[in-house]
C-alpha cells in the first residue's frame, strides 16, 4: 500500500469515527419510560376511539412525570406521580381497572425501588388502597420492611395517611365481563389431571410500570398491577417481587416487567437484566432482549422496560404488542402500542 492511499484511508477512518461520536452525543437521552402491559394487542381488534384513549393517557402519564423531573423532583417522585395517572384510569390492569380474581375480588400488588440506595417497598393482595404504588413507597420509607400483604398492608397504609377506598371503587364492568369469559373457558377446558389454577394467561395484560432517571443521576423503578384474571388461592405474580418484576440499581438500570408472572419469577428477570449489564457488560437493550428470550424459551410471554444511567432504554417484549412510551431529556414524547 502506497503512502498516499494509506493516508487517504486514515482520513476516511477519522471522518467516520467523528461521525459516530457526534451520533452518540446527539442520540436521544431518555429520562422516563412507561408501559401499560403486554399481550395480544392487535390493531385489527382496536377501535380508533380506544387507541386514541390509550395514547392520550400514556401521554398524560409521561407529561406528568416529566414535569416532576424538570422541576428537580426525584425519580421516585416522578414514578409515583406517573403511576397514579395509570392506576386511576380504568384502561389498565392496575388500581381502578384491576382485573378480578376467581372469587370476584380485586387484589392489587405494587413495588417501587430506589436505584441510589437499593431500598425497596412492596404490597400484595390489597383491596382497599386507592394507589398501591404509594403504599409500596410508604413501606420502603416508613417501615423497616420490604413487603407487606393483605389486611396488614392495608392497616399500615391507613396509618401512613394514604387514601383508603371501598373495594367497589375498583370494579369495572369490562373487567367483570372478562372474568365471566375466563371462567367459562376454564370450565370448558377443565382437565382433572392439570395443575390447579387458571390456564387463561392471555387475559392478564394491563400491568403498569415506570422507570425514571432524575437530574441527580438517580434511577428508580415502579410497577403496579391487578394480577391475573381469574386467579385463585391468593396467587401473587412478579410485579411486587423485587428482582423479578421490579428492580433498580444506579450502577446498571431500572427495570419494570409485565407478562406471565410465574415465568418472570422463575427467571428473576429484572435482576437478571441488571446482572447481565454489571457482570457481562451488555447494553441495556441487549440485556433486555436476552432475558425476554429466556422467558419465551421457557414458555412465557410478556415484556419489560429498562433505562440505564446514561439515558439509554429498551422496550423488549415477545407478544403481539405492549402499551409503552418514553420521554427524552428535551421533552420529546413517543408512544407505541403494536409490535411494528
What string gives the helices and strands in order? HEHHEEHEHHEEEEHHHEEEE
What does the largest sheet look like?
8 strands, mixed
Share in β-strands: 15-25%
What CATH first level would be assigned?
A: Alpha Beta
The total tally of domains equals 1
Total helix count? Answer: 9
Strand order of the largest sheet: 4-3-2-6-5-1-11-12
Protein name: Isoaspartyl peptidase
Binding site for substrate: 235-238, 258-261
Active site: 207 (nucleophile)
Keywords: Autocatalytic cleavage, Hydrolase, Protease, Signal
Throw out a few tags for this protein.
340 residues; alpha+beta; Glutamine Phosphoribosylpyrophosphate, subunit 1, domain 1; eight-stranded mixed beta sheet; four-stranded antiparallel beta sheet; 9 helices; 12 strands; globular; autocatalytic cleavage; peptidase activity; Ntn_hydrolases_N; signal
Amino acid at each position: 500500500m502506497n503512502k498516499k492511499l494509506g493516508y487517504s484511508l486514515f482520513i476516511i477512518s477519522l471522518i467516520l469515527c467523528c461521525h459516530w461520536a457526534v451520533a452518540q452525543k446527539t442520540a436521544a437521552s431518555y429520562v422516563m419510560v412507561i408501559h401499560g402491559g403486554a399481550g395480544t394487542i392487535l390493531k385489527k381488534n382496536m377501535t380508533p376511539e380506544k387507541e386514541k384513549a390509550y395514547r392520550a393517557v400514556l401521554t398524560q402519564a409521561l407529561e406528568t412525570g416529566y414535569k416532576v423531573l424538570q422541576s428537580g423532583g426525584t425519580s421516585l417522585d416522578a414514578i409515583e406521580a406517573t403511576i397514579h395517572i395509570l392506576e386511576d384510569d380504568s384502561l389498565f390492569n392496575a388500581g381502578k381497572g384491576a382485573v378480578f380474581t376467581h372469587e370476584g375480588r380485586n387484589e392489587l400488588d405494587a413495588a417501587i425501588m430506589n436505584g441510589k440506595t437499593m431500598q425497596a417497598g412492596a404490597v400484595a393482595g390489597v383491596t382497599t388502597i386507592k394507589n398501591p404504588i404509594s403504599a409500596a413507597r410508604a413501606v420502603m420509607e416508613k417501615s423497616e420492611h420490604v413487603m407487606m400483604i393483605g389486611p396488614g398492608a392495608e392497616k399500615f397504609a391507613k396509618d401512613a395517611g394514604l387514601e383508603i377506598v371501598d373495594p367497589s371503587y375498583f370494579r369495572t364492568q369490562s373487567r367483570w365481563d372478562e372474568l365471566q369469559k375466563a371462567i367459562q373457558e376454564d370450565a370448558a377446558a377443565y382437565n382433572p389431571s392439570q395443575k390447579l389454577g387458571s390456564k387463561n394467561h392471555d387475559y392478564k395484560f394491563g400491568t403498569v410500570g415506570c422507570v425514571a432517571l432524575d437530574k441527580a443521576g438517580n434511577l428508580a423503578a415502579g410497577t403496579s398491577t391487578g394480577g391475573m384474571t381469574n386467579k385463585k388461592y391468593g396467587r401473587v405474580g412478579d410485579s411486587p417481587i423485587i428482582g423479578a418484576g421490579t428492580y433498580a440499581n444506579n450502577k446498571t438500570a431500572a427495570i419494570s416487567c409485565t407478562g406471565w408472572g410465574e415465568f418472570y419469577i422463575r427467571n428473576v428477570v429484572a435482576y437478571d437484566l441488571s446482572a447481565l449489564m454489571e457482570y457481562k457488560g451488555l447494553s441495556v437493550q441487549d440485556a433486555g432482549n436476552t432475558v425476554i428470550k429466556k422467558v419465551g424459551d421457557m414458555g412465557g410471554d410478556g415484556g419489560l422496560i429498562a433505562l440505564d444511567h446514561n439515558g439509554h432504554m429498551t422496550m423488549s417484549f415477545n407478544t403481539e404488542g405492549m402499551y409503552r412510551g418514553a420521554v427524552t431529556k428535551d421533552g420529546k414524547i413517543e408512544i407505541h402500542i403494536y409490535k411494528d
